[in-house]
Amino acid sequence: MSVKYGILTLLYQKKHHGYELKLELDSLLGIKGKINPGQIYTTLDRLIRDQLVSSAGMDDQERKLYELTPKGKDELEKWLLEPVPYTTTKEDFFFKWSCARKINFAQEKKMLEQQKAMVIKEVMELTKLKTELLLQGDESKYLLISGILLHLEADLNWMNQVENRIR
Predict the structure, then answer these.
(1) pLDDT tens, residue order, the chain (167 aa)
(2) How far is 31 from 53, CA to CA, in rounded Å?
(3) What angle do CA 15, 41, 17 make, to 5 degrees?
């Protein structure tokens, strides 16, 4: 997740002050976490330095406003069109499993069972959240959670295949 591009996205729509950017970025992140307020201002300083964002004066409560520059708009649109590399095989568990296989780890099955249990727990929690989002009418987050669940389902299927092969 890029704070830089999150800020550019929010400023694409309208001028914002720093704390407003923090709240909206937290919302964009959804279940992934929260942004440290200091990270917002550090990123804003870099964006101003790189001429992607400029100061737009103050709002009625004397808070500094920021706006997207034409260069910032071009940068955001360029980034949005770049495909995201698919890196499943680089994820931590797959790397850990490869290491276990390399050393013929005697507890590989236990390792897989523990991982599956954690994924199943996450699937259950996300399924509940997905239902809540559907009822709230939050289409974007509903679709995001649906995608995450599909990835988790694929991971579970893979783990089942591994378990079947090591029996």
Answers:
(1) 678 888 888 899 898 888 888 888 887 776 556 788 888 899 999 999 999 999 888 878 888 899 999 999 999 999 888 877 666 555 777 777 877 877 788 888 888 888 889 889 999 999 999 999 999 998 888 998 999 999 899 989 988 898 888 76
(2) 27
(3) 25
User: What span, in angstroms and rounded, lies between the C-alpha atoms of 2 and 4?
Assistant: 5
Q: How far is CA 164 from CA 112, 155, 160, in A?
A: 11, 14, 6
Sign of CA dihedral 156, 85, 5, 138: negative
Is 90 buried (19+), middle (13-18) or exposed (0-12) by CB count in 10 A?
exposed
Where helices occur in 30-103 by DSSP H, the ranges are 37-49, 70-81, 92-102
Within a 13 Å sphere around the CA of 35, how many CA atoms are in the beta-carbon half?
A: 26
> Closest Cα to residue 61, out of 16, 3, 9?
16
What is the pTM for the complete model shown? 0.65
Distance CA 135, CA 139 (A): 10
| Eight-state DSSP code of residue 88 | G
Query: SS3 of 15, please?
Result: coil
